[in-house]
Amino acid sequence: MTEKDPSKKLSTESYKGVRDFYPTDLFVQHFMFDTWRKAVQSFGYEEYDASVLENTEIYKAKSGDEIVNAQSYTFTDRGDREVTLRPEMTPTLARMVAARKRELGFPLRLFSIPNCFRYERPQRGRLREFWQLNVDLLTKKPSPRYDVEILQVVSTIMKAFQAKDSDYEIRVNSRAFINALYTDYYELNTEQALAFQKLTDKKNKISAEEFAAEYVKISDKKLLDVNDSSDLTFMKNMPGVKEPLDAILDTVALAKKEGIANIIFDTDIVRGLDYYTGLVFEVKDTDPQNNRALFGGGRYDNLVDIFEGAADESSISGVGFGYGDVAMQNFLESRNLIPPYQAATEILVCVLDDNEATVVYADEVAAELRQTGKNVAVNYTSRKYPDNIKLAEKLGIKNITVIGENEVTEKKFEVKQL
After folding, report:
1. Residue 333 pLDDT more than 90?
2. Pairing assessment for the beta strands 168-174 and 279-285 based on DSSP bridges
3. Per-residue pLDDT for 1 more than 70?
4. SS3 breakdown of the chain: % helix, strand, coil, rounded to 5?
């Protein structure tokens, strides 16, 4: 065993891409989580959870090669099993639902706020460790009404944080529609379709010239645009494309009817995960300084089937989304929507001398205050009143009571608000 070098100090820095949560940081996280829970539960969603460790094979089956090969924390355990720290929650949810499919009632509304891990370059809005609100609606029969409900949940969450419609946009598309276009119009094979999907996914991150140069390597067809009336008419005359195109347009119209004014049909939205089959959407920040997707989701009609074989009449369809806490916090901070820190400790009891009677009475006062439901801390060491004031302010405690000789003699105390 190599001896430790006594002159070498351990770093106080955390592992790259993760965070330490001091009380002020955890206050913000709890604020976000509590707001998420209240908004989602108002639509009848129930909370669930699972282990952070998952069998790697379920991500290989449905999340896509990029997630497994490039972005996951995967290792072989002592039982020679391949295990992954979950990079997302949806495959785990699918496994759990498949395991108790006959015991559960559908439509099934579930949500969780799991801890997730992805090995990628840390940047604004994206870290290696994060928490993510996951909201999923699972049914035996898919319906545009359920798709719109999920979009309503999204809108309700944003409003719960006091965000205005002008602060963000809900941009939607349909994987069924774009897959039909890939086949019926662009005549792409599987490899070309995947390349087109990935190119579209990064369209807004590269220049128009770069996009055009990459596009001609995939197809020589004119790039269709649904915002062009002639292109839209052309697509509606294609039998294989018309049905999924009409379906997504109807979903947008229904969402607007339900009061979601800032919804936009955007064919550049494809989403990176492989299991989406219908509606896909992203919520985008409209702030020019943070012009990026905050979060997204979509419909996955066959995800549970990977645990049960081929789809049948009892197959389960799902629609949902995931909203990461890092992007959420950045959005709130940019608009000053985070409330000021409030310490959980409400009163600081200060002992002004080391007389045993003073200490005993201070403990009695603290116990009495706790019995009234207050959170109380006792400072046994700072003897001067100004020092106790400074300590309370540093800790964010709003009230203080001092216990000295007079208070012990009179058996009285006064709680003062700072």
Report:
1. yes
2. antiparallel
3. no
4. 40, 20, 40
